[in-house]
Each structure stands twice: as structure tokens, then as C-alpha cells.
Amino acid sequence: MENRDVIERAIQLLQHLKSRLQASHLTHPATPRLLDIVNGTLSKIQSSSDIDHPFLMALEKAYQGLSMILGLTGMQLDEGAHLAWDQFDSFMQEVIKPRLHLYGFYWRA
After folding, report:
1. 1-34 exposure pattern, b = at least 16 Cβ within 10 A, e = fewer
2. Which of 16, 20, 49, 63 is 20 to 30 A from 83, comparing alpha carbons?
3. Secondary structure letter of residue 99 according to DSSP
4. Phi then psi for 108, rounded to 5 degrees?
5. pLDDT of 24-64, one tens digit each?
6. Between the CA of residue 23 and those of 18, 27, 107, what are the distances in Å?
7. pTM of this structure
8. Which residues contact 45 (CB under 8 A, 6 or more apart)?
9. What's the CA gap between 52 and 3, in Å, rounded?
């Protein structure tokens, strides 16, 4: 994937996750925090022109925060939101995490 393709894909996946979370009308108390994380990350990465340290760290921070909230709260996502989360998770594992080693972060499958 070209750098611009990676950035556009990340933005697309986060926007899709946001729309699916909003459409599912979750009533869990942690739902606003999920949306805050997604919105904050989108605002940080939309101005990115290259896959650099701030871009990678913004995505990794969002991924860790979302994972922790979803895992610890036991929030039940509907099918659409769950699929959007799975797509973002796969993107992180396959595209972003392997690039983190460039900045001293090592990830092993």
C-alpha cells in the first residue's frame, strides 16, 4: 500500500466505525468515550500527509483505548459495529503494527 492509501484507508475505517457506533444507538455509559476516541483520532490523522510517528502513534493510541474499553466493559456491539471494529482491528494488525518497528516499537504476531 502506498502511504496516501494507508492514510485514506485509516480515515475511511475510522469514519465507518464512527457511523456504525452512532447507528447502533448503544446505551452503554462508555459509548461517548468510544466516540471521543474515534473523533479525536480522526481530527489528528486527517491532516497527515505521510505515515510518520505522530500518525502511527495516534492510531495505536486509539486502538489501545478502543480495545480496552470494548474488552473491559463487555459492551455488546451490534453486527454492523462489530464488523466495523473487526475491519479496523485487521487493518491495525496487518498494516499499522508492522510499521511501528521503524520507531522502536516491536510487534510480533
Report:
1. eeeeebbebbeebbebbbebbeebebeeeebeeb
2. 49
3. G
4. -120, 140
5. 888 888 889 999 999 999 999 999 989 888 899 999 999 99
6. 9, 12, 33
7. 0.88
8. 7, 10, 11, 14, 55, 58, 59
9. 10
